Amino acid sequence: RTVLIMTSPKEQAAISRLMGFLQEWDNASKVARSHILDNFIKANQGKTGPELELEFSQGASLFLARLTSWLRLTYMYGIYLDRQLKSIGIFLSAASSHRYLIEFLEVGGVLTLLEILGLNQLKEEDKRESIKLLQLVANAGRKYKELICESYGVRSIAEFLAVSKSEETQEQVQILLDSLGHGNPKYQNQVYKGLIALLPCTSPKAQQLSLQTLRTVQVIVGAAHPSIVDAVLGVLSSMHLEVQYEAIQLIKDLMAYEVRPVLLKGLVELLKPPGRETAKVKGKALDDPAALHLPEPLSVYIQQAAAAKTIGILAKDSTKLAEEMIQLRVVHGLMCAMGNQDHTTCQRQASITLEYFVRTFPIVEQHVKKATGERLFQLFMRDAKTLYMNMDAVQVDILVSNKVNIPGSLSSPERMPHMEEEGGTE
Length: 426
Description:
This protein is elongated. α7 packs antiparallel against α8, α8 (about 125-140) packs parallel to α11 (about 165-180) and α13 runs parallel beside α15. It is mainly α. It has 23 helices and no strands. This is Armadillo-like helical domain containing protein 1. InterPro entries: ARM-like, ARM-type_fold, DUF5578. It holds the Pfam family DUF5578. It comes from Chelydra serpentina.
């Protein structure tokens, strides 16, 4: 039996317009298609799925299919890529338009977007549009986040963040990584480890954003991976204060996790960088006697100063943490850092932190006073912040060569008189 579908003249006219539009697209040159997309973007920004269907006489999917086909054929060359991605974004962001998302994914949309991120010949603006589309996919729900991660998306996205030159783009990437870290239990650890792997990158903005995102994802993951210790301590060598700030905030958060002892030990060790004599084991330095006298790189001193600052912040936050660090010989390390005449910021930060320990713990005051001698100790207590400007060479040597060690429990009253031998008196 044949069923006849009757259409009104109005519907027939709409279908005719659609077919005419699609035919125009199919026959158009690249330049003509770019003009069609410009008009489409201008006329349809913010429309809902039903509104798009009305615009295309219930045939919007036919245009989306043509868009995605053209994208897949030309994305490697960057031909009008920004217009293509923005046009697809209108479909994916439209309310009540889940079918468009499914249609886009079915033709390999996610893989195409991820591949765009890794192509050096493409413009940063195009890659930013690709990130925005991936955000739309991720925000559609858990299974779509999993699809991105299953396509090695975390690695592609993280690598792009590390090399991106635009802060606006990097901030969009952060939004995407944060989305992938939430509501994605199967792959949240992958996102977490990807963020840790980003910390040694050379982009300060990428480091800052990764640290910020790590703080939120760390709470979701619930357990700190051991690799985070060296990674976050390494970031303290950054000369960018905003990066150091985020690193210190993350370190404060990590005090609630099982990596705390290793992290505290690492911080204290940074107060005494490896001696200059270790430079001779590096490469051709073995054949160069002058290498034995090379100064430490500036980044080492910056890291030393940041460690002293971080230790002070942690100690003021928690007496328990302060006591743990005293057992790790933090007082010895701080005094050594105070004698680093190659970096005044390091001297100043170490002095400020040591002053807190001295004023908070009588046992520390006793040890420091004995190690420095009365004159240097009074100079220190008078103004710790400016001590580095008022020391002579002998006093610097006293600090650098100190042997302060405060073992045992600070709460044990009987050990107060039994102070270990310390070097250096005036």
